[in-house]
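Journal club side-thread
Mid-discussion, someone asked how the predicted structure for our own chain would compare to the paper's figures. Pasting it here so we can look after the session.
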Amino acid sequence: MGLITVQELKALTPDRDGERVAMGGSMYGTVRAGSDGAVSVHVVWRYRFNAKVRQIRLGTWRDKGGESLKALRDKRDTYAGEVKSGIDPIDRRATDRLRDAADAEAARQAQVDRLQALAAASARMTVRELFELWHRVHLAKPQGGRKDGGAEALRAFEKDVFPHIGNMAAKDVRKADVLRIIDDMTARGVTRMTKRVFSDLRQMFELAVDREIIELNPTARIKKKKDIGDDTERDRFLSERELVKLFEKLPDSGLTDTAQLALKIQLATITRIGEVSAARWDQVDLERRVWTLPTTKNGKAHRVHISDFALTQFQALQAITGAAPWLFPNSKLSGPIDSKTFTKQVADRQREEKPMTRRTKQIDALALEGGQWRPHDLRRTGATMMALLGVLPDVVERCLNHKEQNRMKRIYQHAGYEAQMREAWDLLGLRLALLKNKPENVRTLKRA
């Protein structure tokens, strides 16, 4: 039997549909005509194995899109080699299919086992481990994470969350467990911090729900206003009697000279502690006695007049940090110090409980009779003193760089009050100098 050629296959017409064609070399094809008139040939190979004639499919030839005649013959030659070696291609293919099916089943079972192991591990994940996951995938990531890399959240959880539920399995945490944390914190009067920790707990447990580590978020039915309470507007300011005491305490408080100067500059300029800590020397003109804040909270630049008292503090600071670009550079001299540094140092020196680890032991070095105070309260204190010294409210507001709340005034009243503002800062500076240097000669003012 002669071998069929490609040209002969191409010559087959649709009217030969169903006809069997001898292709040579024990290969046979069945002609099939498609609905579009295209002709294909389904090819088999007949062979003898153990005295039996068997037939195995080789494939389908098409003029376009099928297997080539050469490929079909190569496959036939491979099968013939197996037969010559004592292997039946049909049995071998059946064995291959069984092995492939067994491999697929083994792979499927391995995947099931892996998922079950992950589920078991997730079920055992503690709250501390969940925090580490949340910290890694959200808080500390370079893009979209928190500016401090989650350091403040970690500090808060170490203090108030982990002691209660840190070693509990995340799936076992209930609403009552979260409420115990809230109750302990609100009992200390730290409402704002309580809300911040609660918000972080809610975000962390939401991640656990998304990752199918837990089914329900235990914070879901807790309401900030109902279960934590409203924030009360802080109105703490230091009386002149307290300021006298503060000036006496600062040198022995354990604060660095720069930290002490930062508090005095803030008090004398009634600026924000963040504005003080981030200031640059190229923004401070000691000769013209002007400190320019290019960007502020209200979105506008602010010019602060430097009083005699403030000038003394700036000059003392310049002798310490004047070689750096920033008034208060960080330890690496790569940028300004974090403003929270001053806030924490002040808070650490007004503790009723034992000192925190690796923090100052002078826990009452800055305690005053009016209760706990913060650096931001010095801004309110300076503004209050200006008012007591007779400065008009509008001028005080401009010294504070507050945005005018009255829309009509904001649009039509453009008086700069520069002279009045300079006078206000000078009055405040004179009063602070008296309180610091000659308190015995001062009759302290009291707020009405």
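Post-session note: The longest helix spans residues 89-124.
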